[in-house]
Design a protein that fits this description.
Elements: H1 2-25, H2 29-52, H3 62-102, H4 115-137, E1 144-152, E2 162-167, H5 178-190, E3 195-198, H6 214-217, E4 226-228, H7 244-261, E5 263-265, E6 269-275, E7 278-284, H8 299-302, E8 312-315, H9 319-324, E9 335-338, E10 348-350, E11 354-356, E12 368-372, E13 375-379, E14 397-405
Parallel strand pairs: 1-14, 2-3, 3-4, 4-5, 7-8, 8-9, 9-13
Antiparallel strand pairs: 2-14, 6-7, 10-11, 12-13
Amino acid sequence: MLRWIIFVMFYAGLTFYALQALKTITRYPWVYFTYLGISLIVLLNFLYQFAWGDDTGRVLSRPKSYAFGFLLTMITFNVITVVFLFSEDLFRFLSGAYQKLFGGTKEFSFPERRRFLSMIAMGIAAIPFGALLYGMYRGKYNFQVLKYQLEFDDLPDAFDGYQITQISDVHSGSFDDRKKIEYAIDLVNAQKSDVILFTGDMVNNKAEEMVPWKDTFARLEAADGKFSILGNHDYGDYVDWDTEELKMKNLEELKALQLEIGFVLLLNESRYLKKGGDKIALVGVENWGRGGFKKAGDLSVAANAISKEDFKILMSHDPSHWEDVVINDDYHYHLTLSGHTHGMQFGIEIPGWVKWSPIRWRYKYWAGIYKEMGQYINVNRGFGFLGYPGRVGIWPEISVITLRKNPLT
């Protein structure tokens, strides 16, 4: 209870401090009463969803996600506004103190706030405010097809031009627009890739989240099939299950759903993709993540049926596995496909100029193609969304990777 009281006091303090900017800009009471009303509704909805409502556990339902999203939007607006106001108030205090000590003024008084500074503060704060609202309204379904061409010296000849479509982090429990998801599935099929690879997190927490979307995802098609692995959310670790048996039953139901959809689920195992007389090895590990994330992945077990000389594609949900284990392994994994980071669903990307997200402070390899020690990884930005029910700047991604034989070899 104490943490909720502290949070409410923090939110109220930000709101009333930011309100001073509105009072400086306009003298119409209805403007700041409207602002206070919206702020109060957002706060009460958040408290209801997370503290008083029927579903107050760790599972992020859609109502809880939107409550969090609107709260984040308001707090972001207030914090930016308050930063400007505090800077001005510091100047006002110093100016008033100087006049009191050296200017011959008998009483200490603050200079009035400058209207144009309040307008600048709220104008700048309106940019992320609008972006976060747009991210919830449109950005979360702004699917992008990102195409890469990678060259390898030892790619088998028959696989020159072989095309892979990767999707990751579906998080079906967050979906709320069937037409947008159907559009995205059609977009995947339109790539006409040789194989479709899904790199984990089909659900947020429970297998039942995928049931309404099973037939839609079953429409995915590729000549050489569809393969998948598990991500950290697929194990049900973020739900307070009544018994361990229910948790295991949920995982088995999810595995069965993936088979019904048409995915070949690789659980620390491998398959060969064949063309003519050539083949490449496809290896799939269970989730392995740095820190507190599940470490069910076992690379040595997954690769025990292939040879060191094979051309290898690895599916591993968390890119920290590639950094900590894969690139230093005795086997050379030519291409690893990961997801997990979502690019934090927030950032700035301008091709050829800037690529930034706060997630870079947590993950060295967080979005796109990287190369280390002659090995590539693609970190997919994710198909769905989780937590904040939107995306800003880091859009949902369908990766299309074409393998090419280095013409100089």
